[in-house]
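Just curious. Protein, please.
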Amino acid sequence: MILSLLKKYDDLILNNASQISSIESSLRTLTYVLPGRFADAEFASETLFAALNLIGLYHDSILARAAENLPPSIKPSPSPHNRYTRFWINSSKTYQHASLALTFLQYTDVLLEMGVQKKWGKEVKWKLISMIELIKVVCRIILLYKTQERTVIEPTVPRREIDPSVFPSTSNDDVLSHREQGESDTWVGKYTNRVHDSISVVRSQHSKHYDVNEYLTSKVLMVEDVRKPPDLVRKLYSFGKLSELIVDNNPYELLLQNTYTRRGPMVINVRERRTEEAYSTILLLYIKRTFL
């Protein structure tokens, strides 16, 4: 029963991908307009924002699965970020669970803080924040070691980079059957066994412009295109790993300093404060120069 409902919902998303994307964009804009309009408008806005992010995350997975079944002529090429994150998600269940947990907390932490403060007060809210930040630190450390000590990139899940207009107005089964019936759109090399687009597909795909240079430029491979997904981010050694651990623990350390010492951070933020002072000095000199 549940699987059939999910399948119908997936078909609904694929059949109306462009409309769903427009609705999500409109509702996301609404979250910036709601605050201050009525009582508890901020809480309602944050609830809508978190819900849109979580639903959008599921929609992204639907579109990504459907894009794998598209014919090669219209199948979009993934970005280096998506190739890297999708590789680790498919390679490690631990990475998948940690990245989803981290993304879920990033989408809902403000909503949880507002709800707890409204229900139990500020003291409980700060305890919740400490717990959330601790879980985030644990997730980042897991991602660091599951990627064989590579920098934790943000976001840790693939982005939506698929144009909804590439999906036909058919169900998911029709997309699969289109792939099976689309053998005439491609041909396989006799010696290399590589799949190539047929001339008719190339002509229809570029019917608006027959510029050969433009077509060839779109087929040029960059360095990132030929690298293996794990090689898109370099491994960290010694000081690099130490720096990554400091950055991952920075929010939690600042929170502990503010919570238990009742003083501003003095060790970690020294460089940030010096940078701000330098920017302020430069800005002040520029303002004086404009008035002289």
In short: The radius of gyration is 25 Å. The longest strand covers residues 186-188. Residues 2-163+234-291 form one domain.
